[in-house]
Amino acid sequence: KLWKAARNPDFDLSDALTSERDVTTYNNYYEFGTGKADPARHGGELKTEPWTVSVEGEVARPGTFDLDDLRRLAPLEERVYRLRCVEAWSMVIPWLGYPLASLIRKVEPTGDAKFVEFTTVMQPEAMPGLRSRIIDWPYVEALRMDEAMHPLSLLVFGVYGKPLPSANGAPLRVAIPWKYGFKSGKSIVKIRFTREQPLTSWMKVAPQEYGFYANVNPDVPHPRWSQATERRIGAGVFAPREKTLPFNGYAEQVAALYQGMDLRRDF
Amino acid sequence: MAASQARPWTARQIGFFKPLLFIVCLYPVMRWLWLGFQGALTANPPEFLIRSSGIWALVALCLTLAVTPLRRCLGQPALLRCRRMLGLFTFFYSALHVLGWAYWERGLSLSAMWDDIVQRPFIAIGVLAMVPMLAQAVTSTRGWMSRLGARWHTLHRAIYPVAILSVWHFWLIRAGKNDFAEVYAYGAVLGLLLLARLVPLEGRRGNRP
């Protein structure tokens, strides 16, 4: 199955694309296991039909959306985004999707909606990782409202011109390119609008290692490794590491969202 | 001596066994090369090689520390002739592990390496484990043995704290993902091998501490 969607020239990069093989077989998706190859190995078991997404909380039009209806809500476009993992590796990925803002406007958040929370599916038959106690399942991520409404925030249905494989978060996920990868929830079944800042999964596990904002920041090291540089996946065994850019290179577009904030404290 | 009924291996038999063991110990290197030529070192070869060399260093350490208990259980004192080689393989894989970190993680920059050591306990503990191993590798020759005399044994007994530091280093890395199954497995094996040294030898009970 191939989807035809033109690449949006406003969201293209001169960086070489990471190979489709690496993009789809080297993943963090702990529901399938902690190994990078586990998601691709077990992903085939994930049941994505039928699929519905429930929209809840501070919205005028809550409800349950069928996947096909969601996908037709706005025209799909291809965007090439850098993805920077908190583990200090990165990829360049051609996603297929439309701005998350298109969906958000459709459900009409109330004035009390300050945050958007994304919940990942739990399918114990397909996801052996759910038996581990690493994370308090289901996986929950969240964005501040203005972050979610930012034109860079993408609701993603495909990659490399095809529907998303399970390892990448089938059948729909978000892609927030200026934040560490774990902020972009996969296989979303629930979108909830809240007044209070949600307690996200990795903050529950280790708040001193993973903050709510998780903006890519070379100046704030992870306790166990530096974030100053990154390894570009597919660059070759002897390729030097690359300098990590503030906001993963998207500072021009997003830095204004955090004016007046101390990003060392709110990391 | 325990199991003294077994016929002790001759120098010739050990002379045949040792080169075989040497080739077996090179298996990880051959596997890396094979995977490298196949382009199969995963999407992140540096990470794979650093982790893999660390794991094989632990395996080699287990084998090195298994020599003494095995000699006793099997009643084969000649096995001692393999211990230096296994110890040097432990050093070899540990050194590759450290070089992998120095090259791929820190770009061979001494200041970047130093920063990593002082900022991160798991790196510091790994480096601390490497210090006695380096001294042991250097003094592994007959010349150094006779030159150091009794102190040689003291220095080489530092492999016990090295084992403890290595498991601690491994534990700290895996703590981030709460993924301790492998850590416990290596910890248990090394713990048993260290404990086995405390079991007094039958018939020589009085001579052992």
UniProtKB/TrEMBL annotation, chain B:
It is found in: Cell membrane; Membrane. One of its GO terms (cellular component) is plasma membrane. Keywords: Cell membrane, Electron transport, Flavoprotein, FMN, Heme, Iron, Membrane, Metal-binding, Transmembrane, Transmembrane helix, Transport. The chain crosses the membrane at residues 16-34, 54-74, 86-104, 119-138, 158-177, 183-200. Binds 1 FMN per subunit. Binds 1 heme b (iron(II)-protoporphyrin IX) group per subunit. The keyword Iron applies. Its cofactor is FMN; heme b. Its main location: membrane. Pfam families: Ferric_reduct. Coiled coil: none annotated. It is a multi-pass membrane protein. HAMAP family: MsrQ. Heterodimer of a catalytic subunit (MsrP) and a heme-binding subunit (MsrQ). Part of the MsrPQ system that repairs oxidized periplasmic proteins containing methionine sulfoxide residues (Met-O), using respiratory chain electrons. Thus protects these proteins from oxidative-stress damage caused by reactive species of oxygen and chlorine generated by the host defense mechanisms. MsrPQ is essential for the maintenance of envelope integrity under bleach stress, rescuing a wide series of structurally unrelated periplasmic proteins from methionine oxidation. Belongs to the MsrQ family. This is Protein-methionine-sulfoxide reductase heme-binding subunit MsrQ.
